[in-house]
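Morning run. Coffee first, then this:
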Amino acid sequence: MTKKRKEKTVFNRILWLRISYWTGAIIDALACIPLFNSDVWAAINHVPNFHAGWDFRYAQAFAGAFMAGWTVLLVWADRNPLERRGVLPITVLPVIVGLNAARYMLYLGGFVPVAFTATGMILPAVLTALFLFSYFNSFRPERLA
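And here it is:
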């Protein structure tokens, strides 16, 4: 394998990791907005006339702190992409799977009218596919036989 082709292979592996890290970080940063604002949360989840009590606001702030932390974690992983690629499968399980399970619990409890909107199903599936592809692609050998 030529040096140029080897550099291109490493570049592509790192590029996919960085796309994953930044996609996740941006989406997580946006997810902080409804976690720190009950009115936005109610609008997104189609819960009219919602007035959050202190218990709900506490849970939102608690979740928002973790979401903000995960945003920073993904940016941190980007600083050393190959060595920190393990952040991606951890982001899939327990984070993405756990958030969707929590969403389903809200539905089962009658708190939100629908279990998952199309966006609520598509976005996690796309992120899972992107993160797992990038993670496994990062192990691709430099020289394909």
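The mean pLDDT is 90. Good start to the day.
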